[in-house]
Structure formats: structure tokens, C-alpha cells
Design goal:
This protein is mostly helical and about 90 residues long. It is about 70% helix and about 0% strand.
Length: about 90
């Protein structure tokens, strides 16, 4: 019997797909926060998402592990925007 490794799975092959699934979730958060933010703030978040999406398309084959980090960046920017809005109210 082969021994199973307890390491985390390698994101070398699936990192791009994981990253794009995460980017879809971040886009949902950006668009769903229209009731909390003004229209120009939502537009800025969507523009940032488009930049992350383009970067993910560029990195999909040569650097799939980096694509998996893009949703983290988008989520942290969204959380920072929510904290700023909550503190100013």
C-alpha cells in the first residue's frame, strides 16, 4: 500500500481554476455591496476586479499559484472598503 502524504495539495495544476472561482466570488461581493457603497465606489471595485481578472488571464498558464492569490487581494480590498464606510457612518 502506498503511504498518503499529509502535505497540502499542490496548486501547480489547479491554482488557476481555484483563483478564478475565487475571483467570481469577489465579483459577487463587489456587485452585492451596491446598497452599502456609492455607485462610484462600486465602479472602482469592479475596475479593480477587471485588473485582477486580466492579471489572472495573463498568469493562468505560466504562474497558476499566483492566480490563486488574486482573490485574496480582491477580498482584502473589499474588506478595507467596508471598514472605511462603516467608520465614516
Amino acid at each position: 500500500m502506498a503511504r498518503r502524504s499529509r502535505r497540502l495539495p499542490d496548486l501547480g495544476r489547479s491554482g488557476g481554476f481555484v483563483g478564478f472561482c475565487g475571483l467570481a466570488c469577489v465579483l459577487f461581493l463587489d456587485l452585492a455591496s451596491g446598497g452599502l457603497f456609492r455607485w462610484w465606489a462600486v465602479a472602482a471595485l469592479v475596475v479593480l476586479w477587471l485588473v485582477l481578472f486580466a492579471l489572472g488571464c495573463f498568469w493562468f498558464t505560466p504562474r497558476p499559484r499566483r492566480v490563486a492569490l488574486l482573490p485574496v487581494v480582491g477580498f482584502l480590498v473589499w474588506v478595507a472598503a467596508v471598514v472605511v464606510v462603516v467608520r465614516t457612518q
